[in-house]
Amino acid sequence: MNQPATKYLEELIEKHTRDMSGRIVAITGTTSGTGYVCARELARLGATVLLLNRESDRSVASLEQLQRELPEGKFEAIACDLQSFASVRAAAAAIQSKYDRLDVLCNNAAVMAFPEQATVDGYDVQMQTNSISAFLLTKELFPLLRKSDDGRVVNHSSGARLGAPHHPKYFGKNSGDLGGDGTEQENFSFSGPRWERYHQSKLANCTFTYGLQQRLDEKGITNVKVLLAHPGLALTGLSTTTSSRGGMDPNSAIMARAQSAEDGALGIIRACADPNVVGGDFFGPAGWTGFADKLPPEALLTNPENIRINWEGCEAAVGAFEL
Predict the structure, then answer these.
(1) CA torsion 239→240→241→247, rounded to 10°?
(2) Residues 36, 202, 210, 225: which is the catalytic one?
(3) Catalytic pick from 170, 198, 210, 225?
(4) Does residue 239 surpass a pLDDT of 50?
(5) Is 57 contained in some domain?
């Protein structure tokens, strides 16, 4: 699997980031792909970067690689398994015990096109990993974000955000009743129940963004912003690790059109570090690939009913989000 040439990272760093010295940033899913690139570049800008990953040989190896690439970088590994609410709460508690402030929380981690299975908490593995746990982590860390002069929650969606509206069943303990794994043809064409569950989770990243920003605006909270990004079509570990389960084959014709993981990370890097962002800003390529421009959110993302279903479903799973 040859990585495409990186075209835009240098320009984005030059034009749309600031000095991050003294800033504390937490990022989920940094063992490879966009999360790894974001962690490296924000550390290069001076941030202390907390790496939230499930404990594994991959997480150890990726930390060591970051330290080799950036010996002067400030990194700290925090154990966080997004398929376990208890682990997410423990990770938040670990951060709260060491830091009195958090400047950026980047909810980057995701799984894609997994077979239908339940987590230890009983929820669909894609919805919990990609969305409900991001809601929980943000809820738990919100008191630290409130102490920042420029707190940011950055949610990472994808092109899969587009499709059907939310349905409450995807937010409940309904694994086993969400359509199964689909046919080989459906998976090959990125359709069927696996991809619908993925779509619901990536739409949830968006509706959480706009639901939380709306609540911040209503409360008059201006020192925390919620931002959204998407990577376009990028060749990352997400496609590599899921291709055997029905995800995107990195050697397929469609992935031959993908941009690099570095260019795929532009949206979250900009949302984390651009000094001129406004709450609700959405960054990513206008098409499948390209520079991380500011984009208008599609109506599906800001639809009040979709926002309600997401918020109520997540609160039912992990408790009320008090601002």
Answers:
(1) 40
(2) 202
(3) 198
(4) no
(5) yes
- Check if 198 is active-site: yes
Measured distance CA(310)–CA(205) in Å, rounded: 9
Tens-digit pLDDT profile for residues 205-215: 999 999 999 99
Whole-Å CA distances, 202 to 63, 77, 96, 130: 27, 26, 28, 7
What does the pLDDT look like over 4-31, one tens digit per residue? 899 999 999 999 999 999 999 999 999 9
**Contact of 112 with 198, CB cutoff 8 Å:** yes
d(CA 292, CA 229): 8
Q: How many structural domains does the chain have?
A: 1
Residue 322 included in any domain: no
- What is residue 186's predicted lDDT score, i.e. its pLDDT? 87
In degrees, rounded to 5, the angle at the alpha carbon of residue 177 between the alpha carbons of residues 191 and 168 is 80
CATH number of the domain encompassing residue 282: 3.40.50.720
Place of tokens 């550390």: 43
Domain region containing 265: 9-317
For residue 84, being part of any structural domain is answered with yes
pTM for this predicted structure: 0.93
Helices in the chain by DSSP H: which ranges? Answer: 9-16, 33-44, 57-69, 85-98, 125-127, 133-145, 184-188, 193-219, 237-242, 261-264, 266-273, 299-302, 304-318
Amino acid in position 254 = I
